[in-house]
Amino acid sequence: MNEYSNKLAVLMLAAALGTASVPFTALHVEAASTSLSSQEIQQAVNNLAELRVMHGYEKGSIRIENQITRAELAKMVVLTFGLQGKGGNLPSFTDVNQDDLYYKYAAELVAQEIMQAEEGRFNPHGTVTHAELVQIVSKALKRDMKSVNYWMERFYRADNNATHGETAYLLNIARQAIPSANAKITSVRPLNTITLIVTFDAPLTAENEVFAKTKEDFVFNEGLSLNNMPRLKTGSIATYIVPTTVQKPGTTYTLTYRGKKVSTFTGNATKLDMTEARQVSNDTFELEALKANGVVDYGYVISAYSGGRGANAFVLDEDNRADGRTYQIISSGQGREVMITSEGGQPIVAKYVPFTQSTDGKQEPKFRLPEGQVLTPGVKYTVTSNWTEIANPTFVAENIPPLNIVKAEAISETSIAVTLAEDPGDELFSGRSVELTDGEGNKLTGTYKYSSRKGAVGVFDLVQDSKLTKGVAYTVTPVGDWAGQSKVELTVK
User: Fold this and answer.
1) Of 100, 148, 238, 324, which is the most exposed, with the fewest CB atoms less than 10 Å away?
2) Sign of dihedral through CA atoms 25, 30, 31, 32?
């Protein structure tokens, strides 16, 4: 380990102690025994010092590899992310006095549930592991842990104690990922015929990511528009996957963001590679895409979903590469259409079934025929699209037995849980409805609550502000043929 005898050396320790500051312009890093370079640490410390996250003594020396304490980290995190005064009623601790210099920082983070104080003990002089540092920064930034872990990947070891230098490096990256209401676009490039990669100078706020808002803010010429909300890429600072309607190859598009022209780009001709089309029910089919072929659904590489995708979630770099491979990204399926044509017949428009494009670890977006239409057993069908190439686009339809409802029970006055005879293994409830009929013939309708399925059970919400009546028995039947002629009884208790 290497000792620093200049002003940089004391900045880390003094970050928690709040002593007189020294000019950040005087900092100099001689060396560092870490996977991070001296220059990287110096830049991080200079930036944080300029922002007054760090302060230093006039004299003194410490080792840059010294392990950071919880008290030191609390102050640096509060100042980095501007968390002062956001904790409401501040707690007291058994091992920290309220006149201690670091009390208000520790109390703020505990009040905001960013750091913990078990049984009232903050443990101010305790060390912080890399895994704990990831969790704390993730909570403070309100960003997914996989992204924060990615920023630390060069030196991350879950059980290792974090050093001053490592902490400064991470916080310097993380502070750049603080959302801004005034974020500006810095670059735009089309990735494929339905996807743009758009980078901002800071992430968007939650309010400015909402689809209704972004559809107003992103304005294109030539009839192009957003197809769904932009999604922040896992591991990026402020790079978004932006789904669009189908671009016309070679067409010059202009993007105006929040009233200001920011970029022009040429419509991309690249279609997404799908392996095959296959039937999954009498009115629904799916298109398969394989990660092994270098195609990934955006649900596995966006920050918003990373926590719920388990081992399927991963990080693509700015060039959309991971493990030595460049990936094509399937952006949102919302509103997408394909054509399905029977042999000798006319094309039929089939529409995307919401929330089916990446479920159960599979990339198999599903498409459904118009209401009341079904595939004819024994007939050959071919699927085509202006946004995807399908290696095996043809299948012969079969008579697939419908799902079978075996149970229904009320879970609230406005929702029921519907159980099938077996787990469908995918979101085959999507877009479906049931009808509830009481003894007098009065009818209520329930529609599937997207993504509510757990195994064979899905939640259906009553529509039009309807409510179940206590003591009344209802007969529950499917609307349409998706569950055949099955029916079950439900009595509201």
Assistant:
1) 324
2) negative
The low-confidence residues of the chain, meaning pLDDT below 50, are 1-31, 57-62
Alpha carbon distance 452, 412 (integer Å): 15
For the chain, how long is the longest CA-to-CA vector?
88
- Tell me the β-bridge partners of 491: 473
Please write the tens of the pLDDT for every residue from 101-133.
Answer: 999 999 999 999 999 999 999 999 999 999 999
Instruction: Determine contact, residues 130/157, Cβ cutoff 8 Å.
Output: yes
| Rounded-to-10 torsion of CA 114, 119, 124, 127 | -80
Give the total residue count for the chain. 493
Single-letter amino acid code for the residue at 492 = V
In tens, the pLDDT along 245-257 reads: 999 999 999 999 9
Which of 9, 16, 10, 14 shows the shortest CA–CA distance to 32?
9
Neighbouring residues of 24: CB distance < 8 A, sequence distance ≥ 6: 45, 46, 49, 50, 54
The reported pLDDT for the residue numbered 65 is 79
Q: How many Å apart are CA 208 and CA 220, to the nearest integer?
A: 18
Is there a contact between 110 and 83 (Cβ–Cβ < 8 Å)?
Answer: no
Question: For 328-364, b where at least 16 C-beta lie within 10 A, e where not — what string?
Answer: bbbbbbeebebebbeeeeeeeebbbbbbbbbbeebbb
Q: Measured between alpha carbons, how far is 263 from 254 in angstroms, rounded to an integer? A: 6
Rounded Cα distance between 430 and 310, Å, is 22
Whether this model's pTM surpasses 0.85? yes
User: Percent of the chain having pLDDT more than 70?
Assistant: 91
Measure the CA–CA gap between 319 and 329, rounded to whole angstroms.
Answer: 12
DSSP string of 404-438, one letter each residue: -EEEEEESSSSEEEEEESS--SS-TTTT-EEEEEE
Name the residue type at position 173: I
State the pLDDT at residue 34.
60
Residue 105 has a CB neighbour count (10 Å cut-off) of 25
Residue with tokens 């009341």: 372
The whole-number pLDDT of residue 63 equals 53
CA distance 244 to 332: 9
